[in-house]
Amino acid sequence: MIKVVLITGDSSLTGAPLHVLQLGKNFKSLGFKVLVITPPGKLAELCKKDGLVFTEIPMRGPLDWGAVRAIEKELRRFAPDIVHTHGMRAGWLGRLASRTLKCKKVYTEHLWTETFHLKNRAYEQFQLRGLKLMDRYTDATIAVSKTVNDYLVNKRGFNQDKIHIIPNGINSRFIETQAIQKPKGVPFLIGSVGSLNGVKNHQTAIRAVAKAIRENPDLNIHYQIVGEGPLRKLLEKLISKESMKDRVHLAGRVDDILDRLQHFHIFVSLSLSESFGLAVGEAMAVGLPVIVSDISALKNLVGATGVIVPVRDSNKVAREIIKLIRDKNLRAKLGRRAKKRIADNFSEKVMMDKIVALYKKLLR
Which domains does the chain have, with CATH numbers? Predict the structure, then answer.
């Protein structure tokens, strides 16, 4: 029986914390002994709901020595075979806490790519130097995409031999679900999922949909953006400026993304930066045709199963939207190919098989 500690410095219901929850549940089903270390918050609530053993430790920053001591105390008590940290804060604290322990240390990089930047460039350089510094206490680093791998190796000087590309796994619920067959006469619904922030580039998508609607008055097109974030008011002003209040909707957070995806006809993601593209992968898994920006991670994820467009070209996006709306057979073909690509290459099972194989290799 392998004993694993999963550590995250974020307890929200976003990418890395949900990934930790996903790993914890899968390891438990495989018979591993698992401990999740997380700050207080939503993730801890879900761990309790799913019957995972967890410890709440506040983590106030990458140099929170009180958190380091608290984590080390838990690690010595649990005596893990593997300590697996996720994200910058947990990567610092967890690896410092485990540096003298006789266990294998694994770190997953969920964020950094060539196109990702922090507003504070000085703090960005501090984080990146810390990332390289902590590599000395790491037996293996998991990159969630080739894009992340290439950035770490080519731009940050990491040793390729220690990096393993293991893409995020799309939950089997999405792969097993089909998009709802829409009856004639319902509005044509375009959808996006993502935080309302600058990186997700919802502005370009809104302009593209507005252009498509104005130039095709015979089509009943609606656009729904699922997510919440700091740019809500700015996006509301843009929607008003484009005279699209009745056609473009900011849906906020929803409890069940899968249910919402089933009702979309087309999925759009024009992100300026992604390390993997989880929302796009989930849409593909349901069988939706996707239109995505031409950034590296999304091109690698989508392959030839979707439509790839220049990241800020709203005119091109509008043309591709209309092309898909008017060609039902093309939508169906792309949707089938997308679902198969996710099932074959990016499923939860594929991810878990690779991570377990890496653990066993390290322990040998």
Answer: 3-169+347-363 (3.40.50.2000), 173-345 (3.40.50.2000)
